[in-house]
């Protein structure tokens, strides 16, 4: 967004600032003085412990063009561009909503229990070959992050790729109403946020809210091998939909898949007789790639351009990220987050990938699984095979449940549990790993297992 202060005041339907500041140009917005950019509109929030209004002077020092100010938060600073509003958060969201309505770029919105960030990166990477694209950066996928992302979209952008996260009902509904996507994608339904939503059916219902904001000509692409999603699609009126997945009953599925240590090759059920190379590890990422390919084809790209887009894309870190260890071991850093679905997918990759060395798993706690968390962890442990995996190490109090079950199947000494002792865990891994070994690191965000990866690099 690039608007004058007067235009922003009009968008917010508030009193205009001092006429001396009417022509001040604002580009984008920020809520953080540590990352604020020159020309941003600073938006301070008054929280229980921290009052953002205390940082307004600092925001101007770092290049802010103007600031919002909550009515009743004291006396606004003098001599600088200030817009007084009743609620800065609501003002941020209103500004983003109006800018979206005024702008001409298309929006691709993505949600799902697993894979939404990787799918976002794939879609943005592919489309960037043919369009001017901006995407959600980091974890800016909630009621604050998404409007900030929208306001950061440049005027000449052709496609904005937005990730939508949630932890409860009606949160996705709010985000999709704000973004008004032309294309929506639901990657899958897993177990994350069971403690808040109660069941996989509840999770599916919450994710499906993304369709409420689809434009009249909008379309939903969804994982068609998930019965919970196909059931919701059958009952939902008012928008186009198309499924993708492994099953032949889907509208879009691969005829063949070839896996390698560098990624996968997909032969599509299209008339082109062409392979598409996907430089991302794991069979589960084939599904994410199918979603990305489906979006690109819908927007008019051909398979040659799609393949070139894949080769140029950049993925967010800690998602099946290949890292070289200090001893020549291969570390797969998948430590950004974990649920039973995503952990099984990562383990399947480790089991199936070809290599000369040993295969070692480092598995951490899976969080936010509700009352059935012990069952989910023990099921993972029961499924591990000593014929496919050489060593299993677990970290965290819940991870010990995985270790207890795996110990019943593995030879003595091949399963170790570490509780919360990360220092000892690192020490043992430094002694255990050798050149050629494959080490998969997987756990929820709160376990900070990337610290182990850093210690082994």
From TrEMBL:
Main location: cytoplasm
Residue ranges annotated for the Mur ligase central domain, each copy included: 110-295
One GO CC annotation: cytoplasm
GO biological process: cell division; cell wall organization; peptidoglycan biosynthetic process; regulation of cell shape
Coiled coil: none
UniProt keyword annotation of Cell wall biogenesis/degradation present: yes
Keywords: ATP-binding, Cell cycle, Cell division, Cell shape, Cell wall biogenesis/degradation, Cytoplasm, Ligase, Nucleotide-binding, Peptidoglycan synthesis
Gene3D superfamilies noted in UniProt: Mur ligase, C-terminal domain, Mur-like, catalytic domain, MurE/MurF, N-terminal domain
A GO molecular-function annotation: ATP binding
Keyword Nucleotide-binding: yes
Domain of life: Bacteria
Enzyme Commission number: 6.3.2.10
Involved pathway(s): Cell wall biogenesis; peptidoglycan biosynthesis
SUPFAM superfamilies: MurD-like peptide ligases, catalytic domain (SSF53623), MurD-like peptide ligases, peptide-binding domain (SSF53244), MurE/MurF N-terminal domain (SSF63418)
Domain Mur ligase N-terminal catalytic: 26-99
Subcellular location, record wording: Cytoplasm
Recorded catalytic activity of this chain's protein: D-alanyl-D-alanine + UDP-N-acetyl-alpha-D-muramoyl-L-alanyl-gamma-D-glutamyl-meso-2,6-diaminopimelate + ATP = UDP-N-acetyl-alpha-D-muramoyl-L-alanyl-gamma-D-glutamyl-meso-2,6-diaminopimeloyl-D-alanyl-D-alanine + ADP + phosphate + H(+)
Residue ranges of every copy of the Mur ligase C-terminal domain listed in the record: 318-445
Binding site for ATP: 112-118
Family to which this protein belongs: Belongs to the MurCDEF family. MurF subfamily.
Function recorded in the entry: Involved in cell wall formation. Catalyzes the final step in the synthesis of UDP-N-acetylmuramoyl-pentapeptide, the precursor of murein.
NCBIfam families: murF
Entry protein name: UDP-N-acetylmuramoyl-tripeptide--D-alanyl-D-alanine ligase
Species name: Jeotgalibacillus campisalis
């Amino acid at each position: 967004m690039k608007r004058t202060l007067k235009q922003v005041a009009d968008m917010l339907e508030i009193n205009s600032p001092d006429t001396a500041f009417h022509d001040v140009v604002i580009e984008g917005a920020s809520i953080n003085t540590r990352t604020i950019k020159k020309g941003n509109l600073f938006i301070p929030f008054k929280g229980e412990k921290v009052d953002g209004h205390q940082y307004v002077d600092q925001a101007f020092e770092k290049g802010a063009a103007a600031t919002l100010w909550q009515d009743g938060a004291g006396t606004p600073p003098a001599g600088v561009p200030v817009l007084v509003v009743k609620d800065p958060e609501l003002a941020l969201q209103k500004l983003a909503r109006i800018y979206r309505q005024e702008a001409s770029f298309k929006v691709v919105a993505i949600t799902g229990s697993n894979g939404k960030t990787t799918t976002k990166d794939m879609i943005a990477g592919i489309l960037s070959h043919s369009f001017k694209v901006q995407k959600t950066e980091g974890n800016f996928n909630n009621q604050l992050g998404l409007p900030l992302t929208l306001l950061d979209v440049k005027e000449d952008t052709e496609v904005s790729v937005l990730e939508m996260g949630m932890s409860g009902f009606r949160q996705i509904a709010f985000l999709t109403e704000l973004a008004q996507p032309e294309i929506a994608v639901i990657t899958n339904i897993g177990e994350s946020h069971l403690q808040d939503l109660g069941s996989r059916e509840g999770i599916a219902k919450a994710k499906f809210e993304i369709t409420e904001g689809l434009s009249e000509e909008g379309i939903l692409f969804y994982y068609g091998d998930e019965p919970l999603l196909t059931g919701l699609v059958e009952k939902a009126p008012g928008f186009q939909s198309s499924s993708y997945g492994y099953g032949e009953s889907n509208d879009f599925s691969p005829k063949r898949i070839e896996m390698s240590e560098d990624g996968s090759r997909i032969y599509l059920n299209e008339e082109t007789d062409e392979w598409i190379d996907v430089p991302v590890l794991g069979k589960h990422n084939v599904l994410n790639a199918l979603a990305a390919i489906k979006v690109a084809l819908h927007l008019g790209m051909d398979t040659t351009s799609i393949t070139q887009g894949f080769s140029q894309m950049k993925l967010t870190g800690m998602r099946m990220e290949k890292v070289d260890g200090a001893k020549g071991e291969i570390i797969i850093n998948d430590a950004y987050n974990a649920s039973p679905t995503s952990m099984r997918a990562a383990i399947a990759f480790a089991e199936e990938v070809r290599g000369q060395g040993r295969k070692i798993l480092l598995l951490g706690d899976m969080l936010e699984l509700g009352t059935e968390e012990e069952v989910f962890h023990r099921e993972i442990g029961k499924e591990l095979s000593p014929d496919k995996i050489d060593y299993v190490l677990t970290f965290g109090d819940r991870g010990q449940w995985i270790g207890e079950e795996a110990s019943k199947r593995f030879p003595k000494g091949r399963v170790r549990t570490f509780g919360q002792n990360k220092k000892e865990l690192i020490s043992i891994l430094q002694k255990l790993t050798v050149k050629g070994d494959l080490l998969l690191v997987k756990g929820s965000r709160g376990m900070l297992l990337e610290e182990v990866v850093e210690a082994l690099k």
